[in-house]
Each structure stands twice: as C-alpha cells, then as structure tokens.
Hints:
The structure holds two protein chains of two kinds.
Chain A: H1 2-16, E1 30-32, H2 69-81, H3 90-96, H4 109-118, H5 132-144, H6 147-150, H7 157-173, H8 177-191, H9 206-232, H10 248-273, H11 279-308, H12 318-346, H13 356-366, H14 369-387, H15 394-415, H16 419-431, H17 458-474, H18 496-500, H19 508-511, E2 520-523, H20 525-528, H21 532-547, H22 552-561, H23 566-571, H24 577-581, H25 589-596, H26 601-610, H27 612-626, E3 636-641, H28 662-668, E4 671-682, E5 685-691, E6 708-709, H29 712-715, E7 718-722, H30 723-729, E8 730-736
Antiparallel strand pairs in A: 1-4, 2-8, 3-4, 3-8, 4-5, 5-7, 6-7
Chain B: H1 2-20, E1 22-24, E2 27-29, E3 31-34, E4 38-41, H2 48-55, H3 70-76, E5 82-88, E6 92-97, E7 103-105, H4 106-113
Antiparallel strand pairs in B: 1-2, 1-5, 3-4, 5-6, 6-7
Amino acid sequence: MLRIFFILLVFCSRQSNAQLSCRKRPNGEGVRLDVSRDKEMAPKDKSGSSIDGSLKGAKVTSQGFIGSCAGHSTSLLIKAAHPDKPQVIPELIQACDQSKYGTIDGNNPMVLIGCLAKNPSRKYCPLKADIPLDEQVKIKSIQASRSKFMSLSLPDQTKVEEALKKVYFQLNTGMSSETATLFCAKNFISYLPEGTTDSESLGRDPSILLRLRHYKNLFKNVSDHYSNINAKGSKTRFIKYDTVPSNEVEQNQQIQELAKMQAEISNRLEHCKAFSCAPGNIRNIEKSFYSFKKSIDEFKEFQNDNKVHRGGFFGPSEEKVKAFKQKVSTIRKSLAGLENSIVAEGKGVHKVSLDVALVKAKMDKTENPESRKNLLRYKSTLVQLAAVPVPKRRSEKIRFRRRLKAAFKTTAQKFGLIEEAVEEDYKIVRSKIKKGCSIDSLEEMIDVFPIICKSGEKDEFFEKVRSVLSPLFAYHRPHRSFDPSIILDVFKTKNVDAYTSRITCEDSEKFKVPIKSKDFEYLDLGDFSKVPKFEKALKNALVRKILREKNPKIIKYIKKIFGSNKKLVKCLGKDTSKACAAAFDKIDVHVLNSYTSEFYPKIVTKIHNKYAKALNKNKKKVLREKLMSLNENKPAVLGICSSVLHKDHRRPPATAVSTGNAKVDEKNCGAHALTVIGYRCNKGKVEYLLQNSWGVRACNQYRRSREIECRNDKDQGKIWISEGLLSKGVLNLTQHK
Amino acid sequence: MLKNIFTILLLLSLSNLYAEDYFFKGVRVPLDKHGDYALISKECVNCMAKRALKEITPMENYGIMAIGAPGAKLCMSIEGAKYEIFDSKLGQQGFCLFSDGSYVDTDGLMYFSDPSNKKKIDN
C-alpha cells in the first residue's frame, strides 16, 4: 500500500513538474504550430500521429507604427483556439480597449480578451475580408454597374476606372487617399499619351483651391475675432486701448504697416479675380496672409504689453479704425470673390492635365512645398485630436478640456496660427467625424477638412460616384482626366475609429467566436518571479521606502490602496520600520510591488538586477512548464521587453523589470507582445519560435546575436530565439487553457 | 538536361515571384530587389526611396520609442515619408512611401540605416 502511495506521489510530482526538455534529444526536434502534418515538426495528437498545426496558414500581420502588438498576438491566440474560424483583424481586437491603445500596458492580451468577453456585440471581422484581390473584384463590379456613366463616350475607360479606384480607396480605406494619390500618380503618368503639352495643363491645381479655402477660414477667424472686439468696445474700438503704450509712434507705425499689408493682399487678390492666378500668385497671397496674421498677432502682443502701463491713451483715431475695418471687409470680399470664381471654374478641373510629373515639376518651382506639407500635418494633427472621444464623466470632461486647450496652444505654436483658429478648425473636423456617414459628402472631400466616412452603402456609393465624377468628365477631352490630387488625405492610421471601421464586415456574426476570460490563463511578472530571496529583498526595500516616505501624495495613494490595514496606515511616513515592518507581512510582495514600484523605479530595478540570474532561471523553468502546451497545439502570447530583441538597444536587460513608471519602463524595457508558436532542441538547449508583428521582412530590426536566428527569405516574420535571451525579457504570459 | 535546367530555373523564378508579390489595396506593387537587402519600387534610378537609403541614419539618433515596429518608426522619422502596410500571400509588410511615388520596405531601410551597409547601395 505504502509502495503504491509512493509511486503515485512520484508520478504526481513528475506530472506537476512536467516541462520541455532537450536532454538527450537530437538537434531540430521540437514542435511548430505553423506547419502542416507533412512536416517533421508538426504537432502530434494523443496517438502520436502528426496533425495540422493550429496556426497553419495563419496570416502574418504587421502592426506598423501603432502599438497594437497585443491585438496581433491575441488574434493568433484566438485563431489557434478556434482553427475553423477565420483569423480576426488584429486592429479590431486592439481597438476593443482603446484606453490601453499605444500605452505601455498595451502588451497585455488578457486586457483585450477581457474586453472582447465583455463586449460580445463588437464586430469580429475576418482578416480575409481585407484580401486585396477581393477589392479588385469589387472595383470590377462597380465598373459593371455604371454603364450609363460609361456611355459618356469617354475616350479612355481606363482613366475613369482609375478615377473610380481613387474614390473607392478613400471611401473604403478611410486612411490612405494621400498614398493612393501617390500610387495613382504613377499610374496616371503611364496613361498619358505621348507628346502631351502643358499649354493648358497647369490650369488649376485643386490643392490651391484647398489652400485658399483654408486661408479663408483662418482669415475669417482672425477678422471675426476683431469684429467681436469691436462689438464689445465702446469708445475704444478695434483694440481695447484703455492703456498707454510706451510709444505712441510705434503703435501708429504698426497700424500703417498692417494697412499696407492688407492693401498688398487686396491687390494680389484683384489680379486673381480674373482667374489668372498662377501658383506663384497664390504663394504670394499665402505669404501676405501670414504677414497679415503676424501683424495682428503683434497687435495682440502689443495690447497685452500695454495692459501693464495704464494711462490715458485712447488708441487710434476713429478714422483709422474705420479704414482698417474697410480693409478687412475688402479682403473678405476679395477672398469670397476669388473662391466663387474658383468654384465656378472648378468644374473645369477636367482641364488639369494628367502629366503629373510636369505639374509637379512646375509646382516645385513655383510653390512652397513646405507650406503644403505643413497644411497636411496641421490637418492630421486636428484629426488626431478630434478622434479622441469626449469622456462622459464630469471630472474627466474637465480634465479633457484642459488637455485639449493645451493641445490647441501647442498646435497653434507649432504651425504659427492663432489658438482660436485651431479651435475652430478642430470643431469643423470633429463635426465631420460622424457615425455611418456615407459618401453623401463626397463633394466635401475637396473641402479643407474632408469628411471622415465610416461606412458607405453600396448602391448609394455607385450613385454618388457617378454624380460626383460626371461633371468632372462632362467636358472630357482626349488625354485629359481626373486629377488625383482632388482628393486630399487627412486620414491617419492613428485615428482608431477611421482605421478599424474601414472594413465593411457585414458577416461579422458568422465569424464570432465565444470568448470567455476564464478560458484563458494569465501569468504576470510576479508568477515568473517566485524566487524567495528576491521576494524578501524586494519587500524589505519597498517597506523601508514606504515607511520613510515623506511625500504626502504618495502616502495618500498608499493609504487608499492599503486602507484596510490600519496598522500599516498608522506607520506610514514614520521611520519606525522595525515596529511597523510586521504590518506588511500579510501583504504579498508582488501586490506591494505592483502598487508601489512606480514611485521607486530605481530601487526596484536595482533589486531585480541583483537577483537577475536567479529570476531568469526561474522564468526559464516556468516557461518550460507552461509552454508544454505547444505539444498540445496551443500557442502562448508573451509580454516581453522589446529591448531583448531590438537592434537599437545596445544590450538586453539583465532581467525584465516592470516598474510601472512609464518613462523608466519605456527606456529600459519597451513593452511588447508576441506569440510563441514552437520550440526546438539545438545542441541540448531549448529554442523558441516566435511570431512577431513587425512584418514578414523584419530581420534587420533585431539585434545581431547568436541567440536570435532570423531569415527574411524563409521565416516570414518569425524568429528562433534562445530560451536564455527570451527569459531575460519575459513580463507575462497568456494562453488558452 | 537543358530542358530540366530550364524548368528548374522557371520554377525558381516563379517561387521568387510568389514570395515577392505585394499588393496595396488591390493594386499589385511593382518591386525590384535592391541586392538581397531591400525591396524598392521598380525603375527607381534616382528616386527618393533610394536617396532615403543613402541618407538614413540609425534609429538611436531619433530616440527609441516603445511603441510600434522599429522599421515603421524609422520610416516615420523621415520628413515627408508615409508608412503603409502592403499585403502579400504570406503576410503583411511595412513600406515607406515618398512623395515622388517611390517606396522601399522598412526592413531594407533598417538595413541601410547601419552606416557599415551604406556602401552596398548601387548608384
């Protein structure tokens, strides 16, 4: 009886300690989940026969510059758990929890799994829907449905098709019209008939129209601002001169200067009225405008300075104010007139030649590309600001507004604008982010701030494309066609809503998989760090720090967290460590660490480094135990410090430390998530196969080390890594139970 | 024998095509290999993408950020460049796009950001 008990005990202990091992196993033996049954490393079923890996055929996705690594690895984890279902688009998974989007906590797939479980109504769109060839099919179907449109006897159907593609890109990608423009620009060039001259080509570049509208908008802001001041003022109109300037002459000079500027703008606009504006003229207007704005800013500054010196100056004479107002009104009229003439003539966009290279060459000579770039940057900044949802809670709302105001200020400074103009533009952009907006506003795409379309009805789409493009082609002549730059990009991938909603996912319900948090196991850094001497040292150090803490904010926070431990709370801030240390006994060191380490990143890092060897050994052991799941065809997602992989981090960390202090962690660690999809034995040592989300060609992004094996031509975004190096970087692990 | 060699060569070239076929939103992206190091837009003689390969410096010069793929961040550090993801049969790859319509894959960009690799750029 005793013998049986002993055998059972040994058996059970072996079972609980079961782990991957390469002792006495030949080189290359192991498992990888991305292969099919005919490969040696395919996983085995219970009978020992090779089976398909659960990630066989899974698409290697790329996160780009977005912090969506957890979404990409979770996508693989869910795919492996439900191999019969299509792979879900990683960005959709990531977008479930936008609060963590792009932050250091963003490497935790369990947060995303929890979010998906809580929000079963979310869309689960299959990656397949994004297969490019499908889109080509859709474009063909658009062609088929526009027979009437095609009967306009256009000489070159290909051009029309390209134009449609262009519109299609913008509507369906929600982010890439600028890029599409670049691409199509190349295509258009190839469609140009030989010998095309540029006699009519530079007619009107729609981007000029865009810019003018932008200026007009800015101008309106500035003049409105001063109109308001006029309305409020009584005797001291225009600028509230209830103060004495240090130098009256100087002030008069300023006014004269301003009047001169306005006269200059007016003159230039007069020339443009006849629509003979070459890009160079517009550039001059642009220059004048900014000088004008600058003058107004100077006035503001002047006014502020004057507030300091109170006295009896009553500002410019009524005459001067009148003259100024007259100028403002002239400029406004001129701008309106100019725009009207452009709008009227805008129908002649068809006159723009397709010789993009030539247009570009001309523009390079006559235009200021920097200002054009700035405008784009300005718009994308606004879109990013506008994409942040306004919080519902009052307290958060106040904070949000404060942050927004600061952002306006920064943006205004960055682009040399006035804050009011930025705020106004922000409102415009915000009003254009609408749910379910269709292509109703396709025309608005030539406006300063194109509408952000989240979805589009198919039939409506065809109709609209037709109605919008028809006028463009109405006077179509051979070798003239749609100018790609008519569509201007403001969409950026950082705009999560636009990014994730770009895919029409009508069949979402079909692809839904039941996701429950309890089906997944999660191990945090504490689970990997169960090394008694380390835990003791860390606890002692933290307790010592906490008890000597003098910062009232930190004490308040700790009181809030550990409020139930009255003894501890009493001890806080007092250097009575011996008497009070006992109060901490009942608190788990990892809990203590997770709540307090952000205040003491240096000491926490120091202790981790001191016990790095023991910690890494333990991590290896836990990894080997947990990654036995690979034999059962189950991958795992690892949260790691990307500094173990990253080429530009000179040395990998001694061991991963998550202090909770964002700055320290970003510098020393760089939280990242990737999927372990296999292991192999190499000279008696275990190596793991990782699927990363840095692209199918990513080898040059990894550090050069014998411990990393990467081949761009064969590995498609996967790397083999030694368990020694990997264990240094491990922060957490998530796997399907 | 000659026929066999021809078949092998054909198969090899086909397999190569298969691996290097990239699409952007439904449009096949014409690519050339720049040595074995980078995928660059076809017929890119004096294009901005090639200029970028010559001028790019390591990421450490721009400061390392924790978020995103290193190659994507390197691309974003280039004034006026735009980052986009292209699809292939096997997966997705980031490319860096320039205003003249030329493009290069971010891994190639990473490779040539290393000063010791600059000499491998064709002129």
